[in-house]
Write a structure and sequence with these properties.
CATH superfamily: (Glycosyl)asparaginase
Strand content: 25-35%
Largest sheet: 9 strands, mixed
CATH architecture: 4-Layer Sandwich
Protein name: Isoaspartyl peptidase/L-asparaginase
Order of helices and strands: EHHEEHEHHEEEEEEEHHHEEEE
Number of domains: 1
Helix content: 25-40%
CATH class: Alpha Beta
Oligomer: single chain
Length: 311
């Protein structure tokens, strides 16, 4: 019997209330999510790897100014863009991660190159930039990452001690990390996550996104996970690995483990956000404890959905 294969994506969780967004903007979000999912799914249909599928899906989201990753990354306190990303292969537990890089169009592709061509897993700042140049990554000018809406948002809080998760008007209201998880035809799982971090962030702050086992994790024994939310709390809760651990040692299902972590454990430490997860049977879970989460899923059994709000 042919194995089920599937992909899930997210574009951030938070205070996403129906009616607050114009119809045109909502359509743009939904269309981009569907495109990212479709491009990743095409790879799975053609017997491609889960790793290739999640990278491709995240590249599409990084190339869109709608999401806080790649082109849409928010401004730091210095008026620059610092990006983080991670990718992991559940088949062999190999992983690659990058943090505090500038000018890289697709940080997720740099993370994959680190996974495949470096003896290390996690490279940051200038060292990561040197590695990128060594492997032929072209650097984009700062104006490639410029977005007027993001710039005006930064202007409201620059030169202050305030920082903001993503780029909305309400502080802490939206977390713009993007991510993808997939299970391929061979039952291998993979996860990829990418972010531009916090608006007006300072001191080289790093969130959960590039941290293996926290914002991103994949293991064929259990599942692949990509997180989005208030990074500091996800770090404290070791969220991604916690889901995997509950499945491996407590024998919980994917849905049970994901909901236990997001709807109970994370809330106990006042953390908010969500995650997407897939197991080696192609089952998908997408719990979140906020008003909404940009998300989508597509499976070889015919499932295909994109959603923003809770319903």
């Amino acid at each position: 019997m042919k194995k089920r294969y599937s992909i899930a994506i997210h574009g951030g969780a938070g205070t996403l209330i129906k009616g607050k967004m114009t119809r045109e903007k909502e359509k743009a979000y939904r269309d981009t999510l569907q495109l990212a999912m479709d491009e990743g799914f095409k790879i799975l249909v053609n017997n491609g790897s889960a790793v290739a599928a999640v990278e491709q899906a995240v590249v599409i989201l990084e190339d869109s100014p709608l999401f806080n990753a790649g082109k849409g990354s928010v401004f730091t306190a210095d008026g620059t863009h610092e990006m983080d990303a991670a990718i992991m292969n559940g088949n062999d537990l190999k992983a690659g991660a990058v943090s505090l890089v500038r000018g890289i169009k697709n940080p997720v592709s740099l993370a994959r190159t680190i996974m495949e061509k470096s003896p290390h897993i996690f490279l940051a700042a200038q060292g990561a930039m040197n590695f990128a140049k060594l492997h032929g990554f072209q650097l984009e000018n700062e104006d490639y990452f410029y977005d007027e809406f993001r710039y005006q948002q930064w202007q409201k809080i620059k030169d202050s001690d305030h920082f903001q998760l993503d780029h909305s008007d309400n502080k802490d209201s939206k977390f713009g990390t993007v991510g993808a998880v997939a299970c391929d035809i061979n039952g291998h799982v993979a996860a990829a996550t990418s972010t531009g971090g916090m608006t007006n962030k300072n001191w080289g702050r790093i969130g959960d996104t590039p941290l293996i086992g926290i914002g991103n994790y994949a293991n064929n024994k259990t599942c692949a996970i990509s997180c989005t939310g208030s990074g500091e709390f996800f770090i404290r809760g070791v969220v991604a690995y916690d889901v995997s651990c509950l499945m491996e040692f407590k024998k919980l299902s994917l849905k049970e483990a994901a909901e236990e972590v997001i709807l109970h454990r994370l809330l106990e430490i006042n953390g908010d956000g969500g995650l997407i997860a897939v197991d080696r049977h192609g089952n998908i879970a997408m719990p979140f404890n906020t008003e909404g989460m940009y998300r989508g899923m597509r499976s070889s059994n015919g499932e295909n959905m994109v959603a923003i709000y809770e319903d």
